[in-house]
């Protein structure tokens, strides 16, 4: 998954310290794959996955829309060339003054999951379109889900009726099947819920127009994942099943699926040691860890492919840890990670599939270490 | 725990957005308490807990030494007025070129826990003093410990002999009983281990001079914690028990205990909602969460006191979550957190005991949110 362009960049530039290199050609390929696999859905790139200006500019040029989590992300999308009409303020948790700022910037599509949020939007962005997020069960997702976003479908009906009463345009329903979702049929039950919300509201004379099917599209880490095409087929089949010949507008919000496999982190082995002479496992300490960009190793949720220059050699299971003085800064310990016995202090390693959810997650200065550098090529 | 000076600052300045305010008077009091409770130990402030220049300058002026995790932290301590002789490079995981940079800056005290690290130091900082960290069991600590740092005592003997053979000054032993350690007798068994290492090395003609007793001193969150004096009494008793009338030089490395209770985070309630009409608990969303500085709520390890303007009112258990679109950004959900029923959207809350391990842990730009601002007064 490390492209030749990334290899060439690293060989030529030899950047010091850990860094992420993102190959824009891969991002373009991913965008094309989504557009081809789901031609009837609007693509809203989840900016939070990787807000690098070069990535946003490329996607804006390709015709992508943008799912933004904050006013800062809205401003970045506008700066990259997107019009406000192509931006969704997809965070269900917004300060009223941030809603007002987004409204002033021309944004007119907002996520909600509560009556309280509807009230804010009715005051700060009168007349805007809102979609209500419903809770899904998230089974099969590799990054932990919670009940943080969304409400139960029956409450979503009430929220959208309330929005209508307050003069907003009750526009649709959203859900998220869970990040790094490897089951292509995970959208089916959520679409069934969405349809029920459509029907309930239609009975009250409110005609929703859009289903935001969220993100969740995976990137390849150690295991193969289904293609965009397989997701597209399964999702469109589910749409036909539940909506028949009245399929609404649909939105998808790929983040990880758009940029995850486009990025590779170059890191360095700082130390390899044991805790006792008869320790079973070697500890391999890298110059990047949980606080330097690899936050998604929390609970060992995401297991990144790690390549070394010794990959043909005999392997042995290792603990992998980061460089900080924090004892929680351990990447893989419950499930040891096989690395070559010949791996040495000072060697470089490539951590693949790191284009999403790394740079911005990085701690600003923990232990005095700089945040993760990024090169977009 | 919110001092009048902090209240006055917030009332006068009305800073927008979440921010940490640190009262230097409290830091000074904490330093004095440690110096009074452990007069025979050198205080090495753990810079990583809060590296704000004002904090470092105050402590340098008071005569503190500094435990640094990186070259950047060493440079900050020097900048604050410490001499290189007052600095310990306490991270057991160091790039050889960073050891060389520290050596060039005049630092001559280094932590090790492996033969490999000893080799680096012998090459990059010839003749330096080294202390070897031994593993402790960490029982009773509230922040999760791991086996990340240190080696078993028998291996520490070998490491220090090796350091001696390579021309380094085998100077002492270190250990860390675990962060937020609330048992005052936790140092006893580690000091017994340290003594055994001293004895083993003395038999080989190597005379260690120092025990680095690490940090672990707690700050008050919701529960009371023992005073510095109680720790001092218990630790000096253990030193007498194990070292008799040959008590070595000792070092302590308070971080959390030095600055934790000096800081308060001002945050805002962004949303209060439920997930269904008959949901048991309200969800209270703040404008700060796990990625904005409250990383130590990971696994709900640290439970911060949260003050509101309605604290006399009836309370009910709530889920508390942060403002990002990340489902893992939930602070307290397994153990619900009691908050006043009268708490409303837009209200300010004060999160106490947040002077340590907050600002630098903050994500650099996750979801477009700025890192946590800090005001040192």
From TrEMBL, chains A, B:
Enzyme class per UniProt: lyase
Keywords from the named record: Lyase, Pyridoxal phosphate
Pathway: Amine and polyamine biosynthesis; putrescine biosynthesis via L-ornithine pathway; putrescine from L-ornithine: step 1/1
Orn/DAP/Arg decarboxylase 2 N-terminal domain ranges (all copies): 26-259
GO biological process, one term: putrescine biosynthetic process from arginine, via ornithine
An annotated Gene Ontology molecular function: ornithine decarboxylase activity
Catalyzed chemical reaction(s): L-ornithine + H(+) = putrescine + CO2
Cellular compartments per GO CC: cytoplasm
PANTHER family referenced in this protein's UniProt entry, alphabetically: ARGININE/DIAMINOPIMELATE/ORNITHINE DECARBOXYLASE, ORNITHINE DECARBOXYLASE 1-RELATED
Protein name, entry field: ornithine decarboxylase
Natural source organism: Rhizobium leguminosarum bv. viciae
